[in-house]
Design brief:
The chain has 709 residues and is α/β, with parallel strands linked by helices. 38% of the residues lie in helices and 15% in strands. A hairpin with a 5-residue loop joins strand 10 and strand 11. Keywords: Iron, Iron-sulfur, Metal-binding, S-adenosyl-L-methionine.
Length: 709
């Protein structure tokens, strides 16, 4: 069976010119790239903007094509279809957050206008010919030809007959070719469209040869949708819409992680956009007062030129004073220039938190998912350097990866904290993405995956905020052959408890003291709260927390709940479980009882050779530092040990001795104030999450956006 990868570079330019034709009438083009609206802000639709910009530059008769303003956010299905009713062809950019809504719009549009050509592209379009090797071949091996995913694309077409063409991989050149074919015969003949799949009039499925990805030279021919005015019409039609931006300065990923379609969708080569174009785009951001950029590079900082790009962002901030933050997904194996680029962003006030991804610390897991993490000693040195520079870091962990166990999660968490990650570990549910190696049935069978389909819920999003009424879904892994169902529940209880007491700072100082002064491992200290809470009738508050976490995990595992918990009382949004519990403890006046129970749990680690006062001072300091609403005066605190000095030193990657003495502190509780529980929930619990700024003296200067970790 031939995979048939071809290169458009080998096709004679005259042949392409011969295949073009001046349209008999103006061809009208609609686009749909639905993005979630976060906190009243919405992303400009980058993918379809790139398609339009490329087509307008390279179409033979570009003046004979009319592009509608794209549908960029959720709306009622009937309204969307009506908006697109005059279009001759509509291109959909689909991913898991807009898949069901896109299908419903396409179905309704096809019902109203059967002759309209529907084109689907994006990471959610299933690619049955996807090869998961770094050295690709033209022909599939006999073993690969028997893969269960071989019918993915054909089944998708037959299940969704409203889709005329699916585009696989980069879309700019392919969509331009589709538009040329529209002028010839309204795309009745699809046989020459590269990287396209379709079902012909006789019901026969076809998957045309694929086109190679664009290299640097070809990517330089992809114009900017920003500076070429592609989005001008959209921004004019919706003048009150607040915009944020997705942006890319390069494409591709050299890593081969089996769970990720970032690199899987674009293969292994990293191709670069022109620096001159990037500079113009970033200045455009400042001129148009765009406050937030999500940088879509798979590995920001992988290229030395990313230092220069970071300087562009800093220049825009200095010149226009409006760009507030740039969110980056950093290089998996960061180098010296990676750190330099991040420091530039941090110095400019643009880097809210630096993601130091690990996903797992278990060697067997890393081998199973083909992830090549940087060496841990290098990772820890870099993390401490960033901490000393005042650059906040966050570590990503995905649960449950193959070969991961409950104990490996405990050990990995303990190792990360021991080596300096005191700010935030972001725990992510393992979601199956369609075009990943992990999406293969054989892979799932090998590692004993149990998968449930659950509704997608936005982090800090509102309940039932889908205007269309059409739900989106995701596939969560809720058990593996090394982490059975009960172990999965146990692991998530441990993770949520860790987030609550350590990274939400309720007990970070005394737990750090247990480790630094009493020699207790972080894993032992954290597990003690899970074990004691699960079986002790003497700890009613901790037992209540344990039951809440365990019941939520069971509901998720049964497919009855998403990964966040909705609270109608507290802002009527979905909260991460540990944040919801933090709110309940404070708002229901249970904080003092919580600290009494926490003391009981930690006292089990006390021995006769070291004074208990160091732990008690740590508990006292931590309790006094928790940010709460309605505080009208500062707090004077007397301690018998230099707990605060040691704590601050360890956070910055250093070491210090606990010394007895008379230590007086004045805790500033009036500079930051919240005069209602609602304001406190939003500005303290929600906004402070990524920086873990839950203690007085640790400020969070940023407004966060719903749906973002």
């Amino acid at each position: 069976m031939s995979l048939g990868i071809i290169s458009l570079r080998t096709i004679n330019d005259n042949l392409l010119e011969f295949k073009s034709k001046k349209p008999d009438k103006k061809i009208k083009i609609g686009f749909v790239q639905i993005n979630n609206s976060f906190s009243g802000q919405c992303y400009l639709p980058l993918s379809v903007g790139m398609l339009q910009a490329y087509a307008q530059k390279h179409l033979t008769h570009s003046d004979d094509y009319e592009f509608f303003a794209p549908i960029y956010t959720f709306m009622r299905i009937q309204e969307a279809a009506e908006f697109l009713s005059d279009a001759d062809i509509v291109g959909f950019s689909i991913y898991m957050w807009n898949f069901e809504n896109s299908l419903d719009i396409a179905r309704e549009l096809k019902r109203r206008k059967p002759e309209v050509v529907i084109v689907f592209g994006g990471p959610q379009v299933p690619d049955s010919k996807k090869q998961f090797r770094r050295v690709r071949t033209v022909d599939l091996s006999s073993k690969e030809s028997l893969r269960k995913r071989m019918n993915f694309t054909e089944d998708f077409h037959h299940l969704n007959p409203e889709i005329d063409i699916c585009v696989h991989g980069e879309g700019e050149r392919v969509f331009k070719y589709i538009l040329e074919q529209m002028a010839i015969d309204s795309c009745h003949d699809k046989s020459l469209i590269p990287s396209a799949s379709y079902v012909d009039a006789n019901g026969i499925f076809h998957f045309n040869p694929k086109v190679e990805r664009m290299n640097d030279k070809e990517l330089a021919q992809a114009p900017s949708p920003f500076t070429t005015g592609v989005f001008d019409k959209l921004m004019t039609v919706f003048p009150d819409q607040k915009w944020v931006l997705m942006y890319e300065t390069d494409r591709g990923c050299p890593f081969q992680c089996t769970y990720c379609d970032w690199g899987g969708a674009t293969e292994d080569r990293v191709s670069r956009f022109l620096l001159e174009q990037i500079y113009g785009d970033i200045m455009w951001v400042g001129e148009h007062r765009i406050p937030y950029i999500f940088l879509c590079n798979a590995n920001f900082g992988i290229l030395e030129r990313d230092i220069q790009i970071a300087e562009y962002f800093a220049e825009t901030r200095a010149k226009y004073g409006y760009l507030e933050a740039v969110s980056t997904q950093n290089s998996k194996n960061p180098k010296k220039h990676t750190i330099e680029a991040l420091k530039i962003l941090a110095k400019a006030g643009l880097n809210r938190v630096t993601v130091m991804s690990q996903q797992s610390l278990n060697p067997a897991t890393l081998k199973a998912v083909r992830r090549d993490n940087m060496k841990l000693d290098e990772y820890y040195v870099m993390q401490k350097q960033l901490a000393a520079e005042g650059v906040y870091t966050m570590t990503d962990i995905i649960l449950p990866m193959p070969e991961e166990t409950y104990q490996s999660i405990v050990d990995g968490t303990s190792t990360l904290i021991t080596n300096g990650q005191h700010n935030h570990i972001q725990l992510n549910f393992l979601t199956i993405l369609r075009n990943t190696e992990m999406g293969n049935p054989e892979y799932q069978e090998r590692y004993g995956y149990e998968i449930v389909r659950t509704k997608m819920i936005s982090h800090h999003g509102k309940r039932n905020d889908s205007i269309s009424g059409v739900e989106e879904y995701q596939e969560l892994v809720v058990a593996t052959n090394t982490m059975p169902k009960e172990e999965w529940i146990k692991a998530w209880v441990f993770c949520w408890m860790t987030s609550l007491i350590y990274f939400n700072k309720l007990l970070q100082i005394p737990i750090m003291t247990l480790h630094e002064y009493y020699g207790v491992s972080y894993g032992q200290a954290l597990e003690a709260f899970v074990k004691n809470s699960s079986c002790s009738g003497e700890l009613p508050i901790l037992s209540e927390i344990y039951r809440f976490f365990a019941n939520l995990a069971r509901d998720i595992q049964a497919g009855c709940s998403g990964e966040y918990f909705h609270s109608e009382e507290w802002l009527n949004i979905y909260w991460p479980p540990e944040e919801y519990i933090l709110i309940k403890l404070c708002a229901e006046n249970k904080l003092e009882a919580f600290y009494r129970e926490a003391e009981m749990v930690m006292m089990q680690f006390m021995t006769s050779d070291k004074p208990v006062d160091v732990l008690l001072d740590s508990l006292k300091l931590n309790r006094s530092l928790i940010k709460l609403p309605f505080k009208n005066e500062d707090l004077n605190l007397e301690l018998n040990y230099n707990i605060w000095d040691v704590y601050r030193t360890v956070l910055l990657g250093g070491t210090a001795d606990y010394k007895p003495g008379n230590y007086s502190y004045c805790i500033d509780r009036t500079t930051e104030r919240w005069d209602s529980w609602e304001e406190w929930c939003q500005k303290m619990v929600w906004y402070c999450n990524r920086r873990g700024a839950y203690l007085y003296g640790s400020k969070n200067p940023y407004i966060e956006i719903a749906g973002h970790h």
